[in-house]
Amino acid sequence: MEASLSHGSREMGHMKDFLLKGVALSEDESLLVETVRDLCRNEIAPRAAEVDREEKFPWDNIAKINEMGLNGLFIPEKYGGNPISKNAWFMILKEISKACPSTGIIFATTSHGCHPIVQFGTPEQKKRFLPPILKGALAAISITESDAGSDAKAMRAQAIKKSDGYVLNGTKSFVTTGDVADILTVFVKVKEENEIVGLTPFILTKDMAGLRAGKIEKKMGLRGSSTSEVILEDCYVPADHLLGAPGGGFKILLSSLNSSRPNIA
C-alpha cells in the first residue's frame, strides 16, 4: 500500500511538472523561480523529513521565505508588494511544496488569509493589515466548524452587535496555522437586534482578548504545519475590523474558496 501511494505521489508530481513545462514567464519571473528553486534545494528540502517526523513547525523555512520577500508576491504594489503572474506564483508554490509540503501549505495559507483583505478590505484595512504580512506575519482563514464545512447555513459561531463593535463567540475547527497566525480572517454569523443578519468575516489579530487556540490536530501528513481549533469567548472586535457589509460574507467566502483551490491543486 505504501509503495502504491508513493508511486501515485511521484506520478502526480511528474504530471504537475509536465503541465508547467513551457509556461511563459518574464525574464524577472524566471530568475525569481530559479532563485526559489535553489533555496528549496539547498535549505528547505534537506530538513523536510525531520520537520514532518518531529511535527516541528518550520520557523526557519518561513524566515528564509520572508528574507526573500515572497509574501509580497500576493500583496498589491500600492501596499508595498511585488505581485507576479499566476503562472509564476504556481511555479514558486510548487517548488516550495515539493521541497517541504508543510512549508508549502503554511506559505499558501498566508496567501489565502490575505486574499479577503486584498479583495474586499477598505483602504484603511489594507494599510493596517497588509504591511505586517509583507514583513512576515502569518495570516490564516477560519471557516470550518465541527458541524459545518463551507456550509454557511450550518455555522454556529456568532458576532453580536454592540454599540461600538461586535462580541464573537464560537469554535472554529481545522484551521491551518490557527494557533500561530498573527492575522486571522474569521467567518461568523452576525446577529443584530436578535436577528441573524448573515455570514460576515472579521479580521482578528492574535493579541485580542477572548481569542485562543484549542485542540491541535494529530495528522497523517503535513505534520510540520499546525491545524487547530480557534475558540472565541466573548472576543470583542471593533467595528472597523468587519470585512464588507454585515451579512455580505457569502460572496467573500466563495471568492476565498475559489482563490485557494488552484493553490491546493
UniProtKB/TrEMBL annotation:
The keyword Metal-binding does not apply. Residues 140-235 form the Acyl-CoA oxidase/dehydrogenase middle domain. Keywords: FAD, Flavoprotein, Oxidoreductase. Transmembrane segments: none annotated. GO terms for molecular function: acyl-CoA dehydrogenase activity; flavin adenine dinucleotide binding. Its cofactor is FAD. Pfam families: Acyl-CoA_dh_M, Acyl-CoA_dh_N. Residues 26-136 form the Acyl-CoA dehydrogenase/oxidase N-terminal domain. InterPro entries: Acyl-CoA_Oxase/DH_mid-dom, Acyl-CoA_Oxase/DH_mid-dom_sf, AcylCoA_DH/ox_N, AcylCoA_DH/ox_N_sf, AcylCoA_DH/oxidase_NM_dom_sf. The keyword Isomerase does not apply. Belongs to the acyl-CoA dehydrogenase family. This is Acyl-CoA dehydrogenase. It comes from marine sediment metagenome.
